[in-house]
């Protein structure tokens, strides 16, 4: 019996691949999807605190209003918006459009820029409404 593994090609190592925007957006889309689970737990915690009573609700608001809490909420906002835009990109592909290399790369770049701009917009509106 011949050793068939000697004639098989080796898989390329990660160092062989060149990072391209569509590859990065695919990875980030998966990471933001996982991060949304954590953020949903935060929203559930906040809603449970609101239903529990004023003292617990005030404490949760204090935690989420701290510098670390705001940073986590900022990250959650970005993850939510980035994942939403990525979902729209996937919907476009499901409809059979946007498979050209140049257009797909432009969509990937627009996804990151759009999610960052929308995050800033949401937070600016939030701070304007708050005061």
UniProtKB/TrEMBL annotation:
Keywords: Heme, Iron, Membrane, Metal-binding, Transmembrane, Transmembrane helix. One of its GO terms (molecular function) is metal ion binding. The chain crosses the membrane at residues 27-48, 60-81, 107-129. The gene is sdhC. This is Succinate dehydrogenase cytochrome b556 subunit. It is a multi-pass membrane protein. One of its GO terms (biological process) is tricarboxylic acid cycle. Its cofactor is heme. Heme binds at residue 83. Part of an enzyme complex containing four subunits: a flavoprotein, an iron-sulfur protein, plus two membrane-anchoring proteins, SdhC and SdhD. The complex can form homotrimers. It comes from Rhizobium gallicum bv. gallicum R602sp. SUPFAM superfamilies: Fumarate reductase respiratory complex transmembrane subunits.
């Amino acid at each position: 019996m011949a050793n068939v593994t000697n004639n098989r090609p080796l898989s390329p190592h990660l160092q062989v691949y060149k990072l391209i925007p569509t590859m990065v957006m695919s990875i980030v889309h998966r990471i933001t999807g996982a991060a949304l689970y954590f953020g949903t737990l935060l929203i559930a915690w906040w809603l449970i605190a609101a239903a529990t009573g004023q003292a617990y609700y005030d404490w949760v608001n204090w935690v989420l209003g701290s510098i670390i809490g705001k940073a986590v909420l900022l990250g959650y906002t970005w993850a939510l918006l980035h994942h939403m835009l990525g979902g729209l990109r996937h919907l476009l592909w499901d409809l059979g459009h946007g498979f050209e290399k140049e257009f797909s790369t432009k969509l990937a770049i627009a996804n990151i820029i759009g999610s960052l701009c929308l995050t800033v917009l949401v937070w600016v509106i939030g701070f304007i409404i708050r005061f």
